[in-house]
Amino acid sequence: MALTCSWTFCVDAGEPTYRQGVNIFIETGVDPPDRTPTWYAPQVSRPYAPVFEILATRGTQGRYYLYTYAVTLKDLIKFHGHDCEGIAHVACCCKVAFNILFPDGIIDRSVLWGITGNSPCWSDGVAYLTGARIQYGNLGFFKDKRYDHAIILYREDTDVAVLATWKKGIDTIPGQTPVLPGRITWKPKVDAEAVKNLKREVKKAGGKPTPYQVDLMRYYQWAHVNDILNHPLSESYQAKVIDNFRWEDWIDPQKTMPKTHRRGDIRLKNYPYRKRPVSGPE
Q: What is the per-residue pLDDT across 218-256, written as a single tens digit (0 to 9) for each?
């Protein structure tokens, strides 16, 4: 087992914390995901809207639960504050990255780090799904602005980092090209270039767009996200493993805490049980 170190702290890496069905037996699919559409989360019912099976620990300094709970876009939207396109895109990017990092589908938030761009949509999504936090030193921001609409998720126990982003053809940010080469092969109902042009016009308006432009922007985003989630995520998003990943090579050191907190809430996640289920102090 290798020891991976960053400028914040070191972690053992190389072997997974657990192996589902071998040395741990987690029951999944036991918490029905909330896929009922609402006015603030209309896209949650789309056939490919991501669902995440999250493994947590039982309370403060508790052991692993033996069950997962489900997280959907509705949960992310409530945390973020609204159903913008960004929160949907980051959720989908996380999903394709998790498919690589956790092939058993069980997402362990106790072993994850994340890097995002400056947008609160992307940082909120990564923080919510990974548990990474600035005060722990495991939530960072890209130093290279070309990656502002991508993410890196790093699994510390296996020392695997995955870069994920959208494919060319659904990207809607003027002046930014996806940092991976994939392109969509399906035709969206909303032209991404039309969205980019509208965003340029709104920006030129200096904070005073027309009421029509405001409504059209919302309609474009609503229609675009719902359309994307009618297709398998692999048709619109892409991911790759980063070889020889080093945290400090990717993050902006100006957006870090000089002295981070040691995380204590998960340190007993694999603690032994009592000899008998019903027993007093030993």
A: 999 999 999 999 999 999 999 999 999 999 999 999 999
In a domain, residue 109? The reply is yes
CA atoms within 13 A on the CB side of 151: 34
Q: Give, in order, the Cα–Cα distances in Å from 4 to each of 8, 67, 246.
A: 11, 29, 9
112 and 156 in contact (C-beta within 8 Å)? yes
pLDDT in tens, 96-118: 999 999 999 999 999 999 999 99
CATH number at residue 48: 3.30.1330.20
pTM: 0.92
**Is 203 a domain residue?**
no
Residue range of the domain that includes 63: 2-166+238-255
Residue 147 to residues 59, 116, 143, 150, 175: CA-CA distances in angstroms?
35, 8, 8, 5, 12
Q: Answer whether 265's CB lies under 8 Å from 109's CB.
A: no
Domain count, the chain: 1
In a domain, 35, yes or no: yes
